[in-house]
Design brief:
It is a single chain. The chain has 256 residues and is α/β, with parallel strands linked by helices. It has one domain: Aldolase class I (TIM Barrel), CATH 3.20.20.70. 37% of the residues lie in helices and 27% in strands. An eight-stranded parallel β-barrel has the order 1-4-5-6-7-10-11-12, surrounded by eight helices. The longest helix is centred in the N-terminal third of the chain and has 14 residues. It starts with 5 loop residues before the first strand and ends in a 6-residue tail after the last helix.
Length: 256
């Protein structure tokens, strides 16, 4: 692997607290975001991702406050997503201290948003989040995967692999590929989906969904991921960032 693999804890933030559920339902409290960010920084996290899971206008200032406090205390790159709909939303998050901004639903509704953000701020700040699942029932896509919204609960019929490739062409700097089938499980990343997307995109690819053991991170790296993102295994003490990195190194994977 030519580029060192990044290990990224993800913090789903609701009203100023880190929460965790399955498909953003049945949320349970996982702690203070700034305290957790401190812990992950000390453990050697390469980046952090915050996702505003409520993404409401009334909660937005709380999100800005969390970003500001974290940026003042932690010195790893910080990506923030959830409810980003305009370039002005991106501007405010960057001014609050975010290094990158994640976009999802708004880009599905209006793909031009990707190009607008990339042109105004540069591709390096834009992470396109793709919540993907295997198609079921009467839904058909060429790849066998579709893009979803609302935490994986609503299908769109859009081919997930084609969408990732189109987003990269429009200017997305990275693709965060969330396997919604594996969300909330410890079954491992969807390696087939990772490989399929890797064949179609050249921008960095972040694997998310299903991490349960250190070996799962190794499998994702070998399937083509440039970074691996996880939440529950870190929040609730099943693994530390350091343990994951040690296992990756032992497997011959270059890490930062």
């Amino acid at each position: 692997m030519g580029v060192a693999l990044r290990v990224i804890p993800c913090l789903d933030v609701d009203a100023g607290r880190v929460v965790k559920g399955v498909n953003f339902e049945n949320l349970r409290d996982a702690g203070d975001p700034v305290e957790l960010a401190h812990r992950y920084d000390a453990e050697g996290a390469d980046e952090l991702t915050f996702l505003d899971v409520s993404a409401s206008s009334g909660n937005r200032e709380t999100t800005y406050d969390v970003v500001r406090r974290t940026a003042e205390e932690v010195f790893v790159p910080l990506t923030v997503g959830g409810g980003v709909r305009t370039t002005d939303d991106v501007d405010r998050l960057l001014r609050a201290g975010a290094d990158k901004v994640g976009v999802n639903t708004a880009a599905i509704a209006r793909p031009e948003l990707i190009a607008e953000i990339a042109q105004r701020f540069g591709s390096q700040v834009l992470v396109l989040s793709v919540d993907a699942r295997r198609v079921t029932g009467d839904v058909r896509t060429d790849s066998g995967y579709e893009v979803t919204t609302h935490g994986g609960r609503t299908g769109t019929g859009i081919d997930a692999v084609e969408w990732a490739a189109r987003a990269a062409e429009l200017g997305a700097g990275e693709i965060l590929l969330n396997s919604m089938d594996a969300d909330g499980t410890t079954a491992g990343f969807d390696l087939e989906m990772l490989r399929d997307v890797r064949r179609e995109v050249r921008v960095p690819l972040i694997a998310s969904g299903g991490a349960g053991t250190p070996e799962h991170f190794v499998e994702a790296a070998r399937a083509g991921a440039d970074a691996v993102l996880a939440a529950s295994v870190f929040h609730f003490g099943a693994l530390t960032v350091g343990q994951v990195k040690d296992h990756l190194r032992a497997a011959g994977i270059t890490v930062r």
